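User:
I would dearly like some help making sense of a protein record. Take your time, and here it is.
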Amino acid sequence: MDPMDADDHYLTCMVQSMGHIRQVARQGLSSLMESVAARDATLWNIYLVSRAARRISDERKKAHPEIDWEALAMLSRNIIGDPWSVDVGKVGEYVENQLPDLRERLQRVLVNWAK
């Protein structure tokens, strides 16, 4: 696969995973506490965002310094940490306060790449 096509693929996956997280959050952040399925879906999608961010080419990352690619690559480690003792409050805070803006910025990057 062409590296630029791969970048498009991974960025699309990141935006989609963030969308899945937002769908769960619309059910209320209490769903993260009460529903194993909601919590697992959220944590899995955070992991996918993190993995995809690591695979974006350096060339594309340098073209968009407004995105903290390193923070995205470390997202699952920083937000989830130990998967056997996840701080659901920390996850909820991230989903509610940081994820929407970040997703919007990544969507703009994806549109710019398509030009």
Summary: The two ends are 19 Å apart (CA to CA). Residues 3-26 form the longest helix (24 residues).
